[in-house]
Automatic annotation (TrEMBL), chain A:
One of its GO terms (cellular component) is plasma membrane. PROSITE patterns: ABC_TRANSPORTER_1 (PS00211), ABC_TRANSPORTER_2 (PS50893). It holds the Pfam family ABC_tran. It comes from Dyadobacter psychrophilus. Residues 2-208 form the ABC transporter domain. The keyword Ribonucleoprotein does not apply. GO terms for molecular function: ATP binding; ATP hydrolysis activity; transmembrane transporter activity. This is Putative ABC transport system ATP-binding protein.
TrEMBL record, chain B:
Keywords: Cell membrane, Membrane, Transmembrane, Transmembrane helix. It comes from Dyadobacter psychrophilus. The chain crosses the membrane at residues 20-38, 280-300, 320-342, 372-394. The lineage of its organism: Bacteria, Pseudomonadati, Bacteroidota, Cytophagia, Cytophagales. InterPro entries: ABC-4/HrtB_transporter, ABC3_permease_C, MacB_PCD. It is a multi-pass membrane protein. This is Putative ABC transport system permease protein. One of its GO terms (cellular component) is plasma membrane. Residues 18-198 form the MacB-like periplasmic core domain. Residues 280-398 form the ABC3 transporter permease C-terminal domain.
């Protein structure tokens, strides 16, 4: 579960953002829609604790997480938040499997190969595990990044434009998988997008 | 998964860049290490053989040539001098020992040197098989001669005229092997030693073709009218050095050469070449460092997003810094060991050539203490070249980097 109140952020005096309050309970989903320049990515980065808000509060799993030290923030993020980026990026020198296991390693957890294989099978890229990520198609790469976000069983899954570079059938596929998987681990799912195709997929919506 | 595995994967991902960096380091380290090895072993070989020899007298000519031919047996002799003149030196109160040498013939490229027992004493050569030559035309051979020529005790052989293997053979008179010396690392290993009278005998036969010259006296040093090639002189005290060389050069038909001076001169001549090569090696190592720097700097620019990604997934900046540092250090370690192996291969080739031409071998492949310092130099270069670009990781803005791409 994740919630925010009175979030404000400014890159410069001319470029200020203030965001509506957000709440997304465990197993719930939330769609944040907005055109470019409305601060979608900024909001996502604030929720992902990658940016510090000027004012306002964020709490994850009913614990306030603002005003913490960078080390604590890094730990909380690794433990509680799975992020899926607009363009799937990976450590290009490592295999698909190692990229997924990387989230265990960087969060100082035991590497769970069994779980990685299970997720790969569910998400349909098990045969690609030994390959390099660059050998996969965009849709496959996006599914790998979903698996990576799920590896530590986070409390919150944040997805930034996860479908913007995918065709209709892949979009449908990815959104279904996201919803299924976050529900299966009892996480809150927040999708930030300008993709109008997703409007009908989510009942809870916030417009920026 | 660990930092080492990721670093290795990154090096493998940029195979050609890594290869170039490691290759440059290998060449630089290899050159320096080879120079160290050669310098040390040549120095050892040269110093070991001049120990205790204060002066060499022989026919006038190049003093360096006299030293090289009489002590190291690697150059042609300068000519002959009268034994009587050499023996006259014994009367000088500053002179302790005079060891006359007579050479000019060889067998399979190994020199036959006529001398006195003092020579064997001086080089502390010990007999390993058989016994020391006792009569004219008997020889005792060095360990390397025995190994290469396959001569055994009791074998006879005809020497050939001149110091290379292709000389005309002295067929009428044959030498007989009576013993073999133990290997002791000195010049004796590669010599065939005999009495002075043997050399005279062989050549007397050549010249006259008649008559017997069986010499049975134990005072061959006192032979008059005979000629020798040169003589090694030891002084009783350093005062000899001050006066005797000048006396000889001014008042006799001989010249006096001082080994320590000539060898220092030889090394200072070689030194210029060695210094140049060393400078070249240092330049190559610096370029290797720059190559590591550039390739890490570039790959870091390309991998900026990867770094931000790993930071957002819970990596600390220090962990990523170590990972990048490790890439440079691993290249340095690979380059160092490849360089050490390369230098051994180089030494082996050099030694093969030197053995063929001079019968000297330079085959000590152990790690020198200087090479351990070299290891730390290599690590330092790897550290510096990877730390400088990797410091950027501490300035990386995660949110901006992730948002930009």
């Amino acid at each position: 579960m994740i919630s925010s109140t009175n979030l404000r952020f400014s890159y410069s005096p001319q470029k200020k953002f203030s965001f509506p309050d957000i709440q997304c309970k465990d197993k719930e989903t939330l769609l944040i829609l907005g055109q470019s320049g409305k601060g979608k990515t900024t909001l996502l980065h604030l929720l992902a604790l990658l940016l510090q808000p000027e004012t306002g509060q964020i709490s994850i799993a009913e614990r306030p997480v603002t005003n913490l030290s960078p080390e604590e923030v890094t730990k909380i993020r690794a433990k509680n938040i799975g992020i899926i980026y607009q363009k799937p990026h990976f450590v290009s020198s490592l295999s698909v499997l190692d990229n997924i296991l990387l989230s265990n390693y960087l969060a100082d957890r035991k590497e769970n190969i069994h779980k990685a294989r299970l997720l790969a099978e569910k998400l349909g890229f098990a045969e690609h595990l030994p390959k390099k990520t660059s050998q996969l198609s965009q849709g496959e790469q996006q599914r790998v990044s979903i698996a990576r976000a799920l590896m530590n069983e986070p409390n919150v899954i944040l997805a930034d434009e996860p479908t913007s570079s995918l065709d209709d059938s892949n979009t449908q596929n990815v959104i279904t998988l996201l919803k299924e998987q976050s529900a299966s681990i009892g996480a809150s799912l927040i999708v930030v997008t300008h993709d109008q195709r997703l409007k009908d997929e989510f009942s809870n919506q916030v417009h920026l | 998964m660990n930092v080492v595995k990721i670093s290795l994967a990154n090096l493998k991902e940029k195979k050609l860049n890594s290869f170039l960096s490691a290759l440059l380091l290998t060449l630089g380290i290899g050159m320096i290490s080879l120079l160290l090895l050669l310098n040390k072993q040549l120095d050892e070989q040269f110093r070991r053989n001049i120990r205790g020899i204060d002066m060499v007298v022989g026919a006038k000519g190049s003093p360096l040539q006299l030293i090289l031919s009489s002590i190291y047996q690697i150059d042609a002799p300068t000519g002959n001098v009268l034994l009587a003149e050499v023996d006259a030196l014994r009367k000088n109160p500053f002179v302790k020992t005079v060891i006359p040498l007579s050479m000019g013939d060889s067998y399979q490229g190994f020199r036959i040197v006529g001398t006195t027992l003092k020579y064997i004493e001086h080089f502390q050569a010990k007999i390993s098989q058989g016994q020391l030559y006792n009569a004219s035309m008997e020889v005792t051979i060095g360990s390397k001669v025995a190994a290469v020529s396959q001569l055994k005790i009791g074998d006879t052989f005809a020497s050939s005229h001149g110091l290379d293997a292709e000389g005309e053979a002295h067929k009428e008179k044959k030498y007989k092997v009576t013993g073999i010396f133990e290997a002791n690392g000195s010049v004796v290993d590669q010599l065939i030693l005999t009495r002075l009278s043997s050399v005279w005998d062989v050549h007397a036969h050549e010249d006259e073709g008649t008559g017997k010259h069986e010499e049975h006296d134990d005072h061959e040093e006192s032979e008059a009218g005979k000629q020798v090639t040169s003589a090694l002189i030891q002084f009783r005290n350093p005062m000899g050095l001050m006066t005797i060389p000048r006396q000889i050069n001014d008042n006799t038909s001989m010249q006096a050469a001082l080994p320590s001076i000539e060898i220092n001169r030889l090394f200072s001549l070689l030194g210029v070449g060695i210094e140049t090569l060393r400078a070249l090696a240092l330049i190559i190592i610096s370029i290797a460092g720059i190559s590591v720097f550039i390739s890490l700097y570039n790959s870091l620019k390309e991998r900026k997003y990867e770094m931000a990604l790993m930071l957002s997934m819970g990596a600390t900046r220090t962990r990523l810094f170590l990972m990048l540092l490790l890439e440079g250090l691993m290249l340095a370690v690979i380059g160092y060991f490849a360089g050490i192996i390369l230098s051994r291969a180089g030494l082996w080739l050099f030694s093969k050539a030197a053995e063929q031409d001079f019968h000297y071998s330079l085959r000590k492949f152990t790690i020198l203490p200087e090479e351990i310092y070299l290891f730390f130099v290599a690590l330092f270069i790897g550290f510096l070249a990877s730390a400088l670009p990797s410091l950027g990781i501490y300035k990386l803005n995660i949110s901006r980097t992730l948002a930009e791409e």
